[in-house]
Amino acid sequence: MDKFAQMPLLTPPARRTAPQLFQDLAHGLTQMATLTSLIAALMGGGFAAEAAGATAKAHKAAKNKSVKKVHDKAPQAFGERADLMQFADEFAAQQQWDEASRLRLREQLAQARSTPIVQRLIMPAAAGQAKDWQAYRARFVEPRRLQAGLKFWEQNADALARAEARFGVPAELIAGLIGVETFYGQITGGFRVIDALATLSFDFPTGRSDRSPFFRNELAEFFKLCHREALNPAEIKGSFAGAMGWPQFMPGSWNRYAIDFDGDGRVDLIHNPADAIGSVANYLAQQGWLPGLPTHFSLRMPADTQARAALLTPDIKPSFSIPQLQALGAVPSEAALDHPGPLAVIELQNGTAAPSYWLGTDNFYALTRYNWSSYYAFAVIDLGRALAELRKAAQQSAPAR
Ligand SMILES: [Ca+2]
């Protein structure tokens, strides 16, 4: 109950009644206009205005961007560069591949392309921009993604329910996560993974901390994956960093955490949403997800500057007990008082407005192992919660048989 006290996500239905609106949904009328009015009614007028404003802003930003568009140089094949060929020979030896496989790997790496846009995208975002949670959230909790999410949940209800039962990860969070990652499989990345990973392994840009050892390891994991699943490395696409498929798993995460969840004997995160659902739940379970534990609670921060700084120092790693929080002047919500585990104080900046603060549990921390950002974790939580509320309302209003 207290979870969204500071961020009302779903205000009670206004004007038209939810049952009328949801009958449309229950009967499969999912045209954009219907759903948009449905969502707008559910969320109160403010949401629709906010969403429209955000869309307009996004268009404006995109327009501004196109004015000062960066022209990246065209990708260039690496060819038989010594460092890549050495990598191929060492990897083939380590995997005890035969000569034909070793030569094929050398050829594949020689045809990989060093890609300037990948080098640009791996650089940190320009500093000095205030983070704005509301703007961030509006990119994800918006009518089109909600519509896609409801359809996804409907089509994969069985897999979501099985994943929740087996791993204890709520279906709404799995649905929220896949929605934030790839808009339900619609945006999975257009880079050849071999180009992205080879660029970041062998032509990592200067000007930021060198992460090429990480990407060389991911490149090796990618070849293991392709070999095992009989995939052609040249054909697999993903993000600029090499993340793949519905859940955007890096190759190493795919090899460690992905599972066959529809029982067809293959692990396919690129075409198979059921495998993606099971794999996301398994990933979170392996990161220490505790079934039944909420992701966060609300709190009131102390006014004292030093106390606030002390509360924020450990960042998203849960490390405070309730008495420790209280000793620093923080006031945890009623619901948080019974929580036995450690808590983190999470700050979400709201541009020029005052920040929002939350208490994150070990489960909030597990979500941030997927993507190291509180904003990301809250977007997953909020999108999932909105989907769950919409589904519940639809089910309640469905005509009795
Ligand atoms: Ca499968």
From TrEMBL:
CDD domains on file? Slt35-like
Every copy of the Transglycosylase SLT domain together lies at 86-384
Q: Which InterPro entries match?
A: Lysozyme-like_dom_sf (IPR023346), Lytic_transglycosylase_MltB (IPR011757), MltB-like (IPR043426), SLT_2 (IPR031304)
Q: What is this protein called?
A: Lytic murein transglycosylase B
Q: Which organism is it from?
A: Roseateles koreensis
What gene is it encoded by?
A: mltB
